[in-house]
Design brief:
This protein is an alpha+beta fold. It is built from four helices and six strands. 34% of the residues lie in helices and 36% in strands.
Length: 140
């Protein structure tokens, strides 16, 4: 099985420093301001959101296809919430919002498939320490 890799370099103190994250198809800057405020650049939580949205969309497509209703389109946005708690910063919640074009499927069937994908995609499973992962599924 393939092994996926990414690299991060951080230079300087947490408040004044900055870094670069790099993966096969993308490279970009990050900083404390881009992570904990609204500064320029990306942050680990945004990349986690992208990974979760992508994994979930593929898992949902796979489940729908196996169930006999292959989707035309799955469009998912993941919102990752990070908070400072007593023990330090933690990802406390991830909200998945997905819209799907699935001929031959009703809204209840789409929601059921989305709940299953949320529970079973590899990134959801890897994020077991996150206290709350929700999904809102809208059939288009």
């Amino acid at each position: 099985m393939p092994v996926r890799s990414a690299n991060a370099i951080w230079e300087g103190s947490i408040g004044q420093g900055n870094g670069t994250m790099k993966m096969a198809a993308w490279e970009g800057p990050y900083s404390a301001a881009s992570r904990f405020e609204e500064g320029e650049g990306t942050n680990p939580e945004e990349l986690l959101a992208a990974a979760h949205a992508g994994c979930f969309s593929m898992a949902l497509s796979s489940a729908l296809t196996r169930g006999g209703t292959p989707p035309t389109k799955i469009d998912t946005t993941a919102h990752v919430h990070i908070e400072k708690l007593e023990e330090g910063w933690r990802v406390v919640k991830i909200e998945l919002a997905t819209r799907g074009e699935v001929p031959g499927l009703d809204a209840a069937g789409f929601q059921t498939a989305a709940e299953g994908a949320k529970e079973n995609c590899p990134i959801s499973k890897a994020l077991g320490a996150v206290k709350e992962i929700t999904v809102v599924a809208t059939l288009v």
